[in-house]
Specification:
Number of helices: 3
Number of domains: 2
Largest sheet: 8 strands, mixed
Distance between the termini: 117 Å
Helix content: 10-25%
Order of helices and strands: HHEEEEHEEEEEEEEE
Strand content: 15-25%
């Protein structure tokens, strides 16, 4: 009986390749394979995430207006009740490369990265000319050190209550325009655009600013700049709107606003 039991133990040991069973053996090769797969996976995720971060920054550098390359012009006007505000000029040494010569045009040739591409906004232009415009208020400097002109929704415009409006136009013949919504300081400047911002009586429609005539012959265009393209036939979406600003004095032939029927 004891001999048979011993033989069984020997046979069992032989079948498992020795004194230890397969269960007790550490599968080093299997664990090594799993470890390498995890490391490769982590490296792949890291490389992919890094590439995604690099790609947008590279693409951003190619979004116009580009730093040191593009030179854009947009017509703007600020209309208050019954007259266009005189053209504003630089007040902060043109720190961004987005400014005006008092001609009712926004001259955009980015001088710093923050003002290029999607950073070319109306807010930067307003900052340069010392104007403050929101979707409910307008504040602009007056010439010769006079008191600032400041109005807000609900103030009187003649006998009626006034409100701030902003419109982008396809061209000078477009008298209806497309309303711009949201924070005016976030609107992006577009080449050749025509924009009017106004404080007008409720029910009044803004008209294209007189400064649109200056788009054909900007004052600072050099031999290599070329004239800006004609305004696009399609009005840009509200967030992509272009900045407003002052135009030249209004005449009877060029009204700044009309009362909606």
């Amino acid at each position: 009986m004891g001999r048979a039991s011993s033989n069984k133990k020997v046979n069992r040991a032989a079948s498992t390749g020795g004194g230890r069973t397969a269960r007790g053996r550490t599968p080093i090769l299997w664990y090594s394979t799993i470890f390498l797969a995890v490391v490769v996976g982590i490296m792949g995720v890291y490389v992919s995430a890094t590439s995604e971060k690099i790609r947008p920054s590279q693409a951003a550098a190619d979004v116009p207006p580009r730093l040191g390359q593009d030179h854009w012009h947009a017509a703007y006007g600020i209309y208050v009740c019954d007259a266009w505000v005189p053209g504003l000029t630089d007040a902060n040494s043109d720190r961004y490369g987005i400014h005006s010569h008092g001609d009712g045009l926004i001259h955009t040739h980015p001088a710093v990265k923050s003002a290029a591409g999607k950073g070319a906004t109306l807010g930067k232009f307003f900052e340069e000319v010392d104007a403050k415009v929101t979707n409910s208020s307008i504040s602009v400097p007056k010439s010769s050190g006079a008191k600032r002109l400041a109005v807000k929704n609900g103030d009187k415009c003649g006998k009626d209550k006034g409100e701030v409006k902003a419109v982008v136009f396809k061209n000078a013949a477009d008298t209806k325009g497309t309303p711009l919504k949201g924070n005016p300081n976030d609107w992006r400047i577009q080449n050749g655009q025509i924009v009017a911002v106004g404080f007008v009586a409720t029910g009044t429609q803004l008209q294209p600013p007189p400064s649109v005539a200056n788009l054909a012959d900007p004052t600072d265009v050099g031999p290599s700049d070329g004239a800006p393209p004609a305004p696009s036939d399609g009005a840009p979406p509200a967030p992509e709107g272009t900045p407003p600003a002052e135009g030249t004095a209004t005449t009877a032939a060029t009204p700044g606003a009309t009362t909606a029927p």
